[in-house]
Amino acid sequence: MMHMPNKILKSGEVLTLKPMSYHIMFMGFKKPLNKVDIVFKFRNAGDISTQIKLNR
Ligand SMILES: [Cu+2]
Predict the structure, then answer these.
(1) Contact call for residues 24 and 31 (beta carbons, < 8 A)
(2) Residues lining ligand 1 (ion), CB within 5 A?
(3) 17 has pLDDT over 90
């Protein structure tokens, strides 16, 4: 597994998060997370915030 702190997408490029490919790992938490806040940063549109519910 290779750690990537940032992934910059080209216009129209799609990034799919899935096991054994790009994914997000949450480590070191004492209690399970139910949701996570995500901020997408766009050069022209600025920051777009959203919240993702996590499934286990
Ligand atoms: Cu991983």
Answers:
(1) no
(2) 1, 25
(3) no
Q: How far is the CA of 9 from the centre of ligand 1 (A)?
A: 20
User: The tokens of 34 are what?
Assistant: 């139910």
**What is the distance in A from the centroid of ligand 1 to the CA of 43?**
28
- How many angstroms is it from 54 CA to the middle of ligand 1? 16
Confidence (pTM): 0.53
Task: Give tens-digit pLDDT for 18-47.
Answer: 888 888 888 898 998 899 898 988 889 999
Residue 49's identity, in one-letter code, is S
